[in-house]
Specification:
There is one protein chain. With 446 residues, the chain is α/β, with parallel strands linked by helices. It has two domains: 39-134, no CATH class; 151-410, TIM Barrel. It has 13 helices and 13 strands. The chain has helices spanning 11-21, 27-38, 73-78, 151-154, 186-195, 206-219, 242-256, 272-281, 295-301, 303-308, 311-324, 349-364, 393-410, and strands spanning 41-42, 82-87, 92-98, 107-111, 120-124, 127-134, 157-158, 163-169, 225-230, 262-266, 285-286, 333-336, 371-374. A six-stranded mixed β-sheet has the order 1-4-5-6-2-3, with helices on one face. Strands 7-8-9-10-11 form a five-stranded mixed β-sheet, with helices on one face. The longest helix is centred in the last third of the chain and has 18 residues, at 393-410. The radius of gyration is 20 Å and the shape is globular. The two termini are 40 Å apart. It binds iron/sulfur cluster.
């Protein structure tokens, strides 16, 4: 079932109605949220086999609206990691958007003939929307470590080259529909990537990662931050518990290249003693992702986290981490939209905004900076099965407004570790929260 208040409208009507309701949210963010929830289609000639741009690396989840096996070969092999739209009839500011393949999307990238200047154009329902660039190829793509593994597999770049995404464990020990977070397809994506015969390793050795980063630094890549992440370890992996397993990477990277990058880590909410160890390695930003605020929904949507750690304990650990890290350095993610998913979610946008807004205020008033990724209902996730979702555009744009309102009311800074904030400068590609930050030109999120 589609959770959408806009089902009977065409795409332009939907966008214009939402823009009218939220006139202080930039129109670029409205289009971006709509693309993130609906995905993007590409014409065959827009995806040029030999053109230089960064292909989609499948850096952790599939973030597609259909399985690889059902995808046209061009989209499967040549979809870009991200697009940047700009200009067009409305003179849009440059805005980076992560690519979620969906051949049925009303957003379509097409090639433009030489007589019109060449390049590509983004269209909505066949009407021109913006000019489009594809993510530039990082200078190290094409290189491999000494063991022959391509660097794009070990350390892909996202956010227009700003962030190295180091998924060091590509599976999760919350396994099966009774444990996996119901919006997540990490284990299924791993399987489909292997079936597609891609180089896609379950575990990345520490020494390979350190070597990869040396090659990346030497290549002159513009990456300023890295994220160490992967699935949860509820038992042991290679004989190690979660903190011990992931900390080896942070220790090795920070010893080899101290302070060269902003080090970030996305792992579970851990006890304070382990969080201190994370900080002491040199990791600067800790993401104990919270996903969804409402108590009953947290238990329904995150059954593994709920059973192994529990919602109250998860919150306590986030607050304890905020005492260990400097202010605003604990950044738990919310998956925006899952609180409207069937069968458990809220029936109206107003209820969802009120619930998540309560969570935003709870955390931000305690020096914790929650942020979003836009829910992509992947077909292999429990929530994405059977056409569930996405949440409405009205929900997403209203949620951005709520986040910004709470942030401004509490005087919170722009989140650190996401690059520059603000329209035309932001590079964070899976939500528009960085695009909608205003009046903080002096804040360099670096
Ligand atoms: S903890 Fe949840 S969101 Fe994270 S990888 Fe495991 S199942 Fe996915």
């Amino acid at each position: 079932m589609t959770i959408s208040s806009d089902r009977r409208e065409d795409s332009w009507e939907r966008v214009l109605r939402v823009r009218e309701e939220f006139p202080d949210i930039p129109r670029e963010a409205v289009f971006k949220e709509d693309m993130l929830r609906l995905g993007i289609a590409f014409s065959a000639d827009a995806l040029r086999e030999h053109a230089a741009y960064a292909r989609k690396s499948y850096f952790i989840f599939s973030f597609d609206r259909l399985p690889l096996a059902e995808m046209d070969q061009r989209a499967r092999l040549h979809a870009p990691e991200e697009i940047r739209m700009h200009g067009g009839p409305e003179g849009l500011a440059a805005t980076v958007v992560s690519v979620r393949n969906n051949p049925a999307s009303p957003y379509r990238v097409v090639a433009v003939g030489e007589e019109e200047g060449g390049g590509c154009r983004l269209e909505l329902d066949g009407r021109p929307l913006a000019e489009v660039e594809f993510a530039p190829t990082p200078p190290y793509y094409g290189l491999s470590t000494a063991d022959g593994v391509p660097l794009i597999e070990t350390a892909p770049s996202i956010e227009w080259g700003y962030l190295l995404y180091l998924t060091v464990f590509r599976m999760c020990q919350y396994f099966g529909r009774d444990e996996e977070c119901q919006f997540c397809d990490i284990n299924h994506n791993f399987r489909q990537q292997r079936e597609d015969e891609r180089v896609y390793n379950a575990v990345k050795p520490v020494a390979r990662m350190v070597e990869a980063l040396r090659l990346i630094i030497d290549s002159g890549a513009r990456a300023e931050a890295y994220t160490i992440t992967g699935g949860s370890i509820t038992g042991r992996l290679q004989g190690l518990e979660e903190a011990d397993w992931y900390l080896r990477y942070a220790e090795a990277i920070e010893q080899a290249y101290p302070g060269r990058f902003i080090g970030k880590m996305v792992i579970q909410a851990l006890p304070a003693a382990e969080v201190r160890r994370i900080r002491d390695t040199g990791i600067q930003i800790y993401h104990p992702n919270y996903e969804i605020w409402d108590k009953a929904l947290f238990e329904a949507v995150c059954p593994g986290k709920s059973r192994y750690v529990g919602r109250d304990e998860w919150i306590e650990r986030i607050l304890a981490a905020a005492e260990i890290f400097p202010p605003w350095s604990v950044i738990p993610n919310f998956v925006a939209g899952i609180e409207m998913s069937r069968p458990h979610g809220f029936a109206t946008e107003e209820e969802a905004w009120a619930s998540t807004g309560e969570g935003l205020e709870f955390f931000m008033s305690r020096g914790v900076m929650p942020r979003f990724t836009v829910w992509c209902p992947e077909p292999y996730s429990v929530l994405g099965e059977g056409g569930n979702g996405p949440a409405s555009l009205r929900y997403h744009v209203g949620m951005l407004k709520t986040w910004r309102s709470v942030k401004e009311k509490l005087g919170a800074p722009a989140p650190r570790g996401y690059g520059q904030p603000g329209l035309g400068r932001a590079v964070f590609s899976v939500s528009s929260f960085m695009d909608v930050i205003r009046d903080q030109a002096e804040e360099v999120g670096r």
